[in-house]
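Q: Predict the assembly, please.
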Amino acid sequence: MTPVAQIEAPAIDYLQLAPILATLGGSIVVLMVGLLPGRFVQRALMPALTLVSLFAAIAFAVAIWEPGEVEPIVEGALSMDTLALGLSVLFYSAGVFTVLLSLRARAVREAGAGEYHSLLLASITGMTVLAAADNLVTVFVGFELLSIPLYVLCGSRVRSEPSLESGLKYLVIGSVGSATLLYGLALIYGATGATNFPAIAAALEGSVGATDPLFLTGVALSATGLAFKASVAPFHQWTPDVYQGAPTPITAFMAVATKAAAFAIFLRLFLDALAPAQPDWAPALAALAWTTIVIGNVGAIAQSSLKRMLAWSGVGQAGYMLVGVVVGTQLGLQATAFYLAVYLLMNVAAFAVVIARERRSEHGDGIRSLEGLGAASPWLAWPMTIAMLALAGIPLTAGFFGKFYLIEAAVEGGWESLGVAIVIGSMLSLVYYLRVLAVMWMGPIEIELPAPVGRVARRVKPVGGWSPEAGARAQPEVSAVAIAAAAATIVLGIVPGVLFDVAADVGPVFGTLL
Amino acid sequence: MLTIHLSIVIFLPLAAALLAAVLPGRAGRAGRWLVLAGTAGSLAYAVAMIADLDASSAGLQYVTDIAWISELGIRYSLGVDGLSLFMVALTTLLWFFATLAACLREWEHPRLFFFQLALAETAVLGVFCAQDLALFVLFFDLTLVPFYFLVGAWGERDRVRATTKLIIYTLVGSLLMLAGAVALGVLAAQESGGELSFALADLTERTLPEGTQQWIFVLFAAAFLVKMPAFPLHGWMPDAYRAAPIPVLILLSAVLSKLGAYGFLRVVLPILPDASLHFQEIVLVIAVVSILYGSALAFSQDEARLVVGYSSVAQLGFITLGIFSLDDLGAQGAVLQMVNHALVVGALFLVIGVLARRTGGSESLAQMGGIAMRAPVLAALFLVVGFATLAMPGTANFIGELLILFGAFESKLVFGIVASAGVALAAVYMIRFYQRAMHNRIGERVASRDLGVRELAVVAPLVLVIVALSVYPQLVLERTEAATVAKVERAQSLARGEPPAAPTAAAEGASP
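A: Predicted assembly structure:
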């Protein structure tokens, strides 16, 4: 009897894969359960299951947290180190906030709760894979897995033309970005002969000259592909249109989570795989950072729609975060990770208030929907105020320390000019952030309603509209999200120690950095 | 030595305001008096510190020093010396009177108004007590938020435009200062090979090369000159002074302008002495032009507020002259003038409020006239304040300006001579203001009456303080001497060409 050939099963580290499995499994389960009929299933069970999956993922991420360099898993495809896990917690938190903000969204009803939440979880899985990628192929897999569900989610309000248009625009532009990225990654493989990040870095230090044209083209194309996703100028054109058309909870999700994922892979690719070539790519990225900061902040000034304004503001903020990538030091890595966390909180608070107002006000997401909010609803006005001040970098908010950290990283890395760029961007951004505050707190208190001939004109105190019945009440879960995010911004602005400790843990993931 | 925790002094007003905000009650009636009590508490602490201060030492007292964010090298470090003590004192004194004036008036959304007022006081006290550069910048930037709301939401004519101008001008300067401060901390650490630290004591010891000092000086100077405001950067002043309500205007003019001057003395002169010397003449030119321009424009204004506003530009020009004479006497004169100007300008704006109530709400000089007719007490108090503004011999302002001019004559004679013209000009615009308002023909809408009880309660004490200080200016001079001289020391020895004195450890050490 011939012995059966011994097949050695690969060693699968299930514990390390647990966060990814939690969201992926959640996605499948939610899709299946979503087939069941009934209002309870659609309105309560789906969000509940999604939240369970996300909290489980957060718990796993905390459980396998290990500072320093970590062994890659899945044959070198993924590296679940503190950078991946820390940013994954940001993705999961963004997912939790999005689920809460979508509880009563029309998009969920029109697209089907099961599909909506399943796509959300799938996108989050892709983000984690992207943030943990240690191999060029994994980068692409994560990139696509993150993007494709988002294309569909942008168009999930299937009866609304702007939403469908936004989804289509995102699909087309996103595909261009993916294609560019793939081409760039292929050229990098061609130049260095390896797809694993450590192997690429070794090849760059050794045999491959960093001025190899094949390699440089590959880096340029990869950077372009990633810049599309991160809304870095001049590849940011899609951002205002897509953000405005998409359902606002998805806009909020894209604004924080997609940006975090894009910067995660920026950090991994440029500070791990391409680190030896830093003197070559740093000036080009610095130029991109300058362009992004100026264009993003100037573009926001003319906007009257809050979603577009926040989109442009996001472009400017991407410029600030790119500075942390450019300096290429451990301090830059920590500063970018810190700023991404702070950015999540500030943006979620702002978007939550926008969602609360667009569901009530006849101005939709226009800035006029916030008129008189300070008097009518302090519970919404204060979170928006704190969010705007934090985005502008005012002290006592976490945004101040975020900018401080980035400027410090820039100066320490020898890029003082980028520190000044951040400051110039902050100055420009004041114009539109303060305008939001002015509309909320400094508007007219009463207006006179036009009256027909012979009647006395009535004076009323409306909120963001002309109808005397225009109210300022918001749904409790939306207010709760806004208040929680704003409170966290203030608390971290006074005692940011916790977040700094986490950032310090994230710092030494790539052992070779300064 | 009393144990006084500076954190209490700084945060007492804010705590009172937060408590007042959650108090139930109609229109925050009780709340405003609670906030007033908070400001009174801080004032009491300030007075206690003046009595208790050890005047002979130039070091810090009542020190608090806790590690706060070690990754960024920021410490929660507070302390006062003779210089900051009187800044704290004038802040708490003026805030008390401004809050009192505000309590006697009706406001829309009063709880929010008094909260913003208290938050502003906390931020300003934080600036004066901070001994860590990052903490200083943090509080400095923070002062803008409450003033944005105070002028923008409760202001008078064209308030939103005025506030936008005010904030853009000031925040551009403050943000440039942020970049400068971070650069200063990081580059100083790299130069000296030590750990990253923003503590002012550490930064004073680590000298930077002159080139680096110069561009950092420009960034700091941008922020401080806008705050004062100094001549080319004063564009925000007329609109903001027209729009702000009187209690807020008192604080804007009397206290906020001093932040710039204090910043020069505390941060720029000790830490960037070479750059201070390098840019001395440019800043002196700015100072002298501010004096002449401010005085000339004060003479030609019709609105009472702008007379005082441009007069402030001129007075702060004198203070800048004193600081950048890089001389002991000049610096001491500058510090005395900072206290004097704050008191005098506070009293002037209160008087303007009183005058406006007698001309049917108008603050135009053309509409005033003959108000002294039935208001002898008002006329007397206004005259005292007016004489103080024009630095009549016998007032503390005279001593202050004399010391500044001595310092200017000592270091840069020409500037001193030109600046002396400013003294005469001050007399011109102030006497014109007094005459137009109180004497000459009675204005059409003037209904003159003397000070009522409420008005007296607010104006008289401030005038008494001015008189008391005029009798005994030594109170300020002897307590601020050691600290002020220590701040100017390095730049002064560079200016005189002596070998640079290394900052002594005793000068910056804390006393138990």
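Chain A has 20 helices and two strands. Chain A touches chain B through 37 residues (CB under 8 Å).
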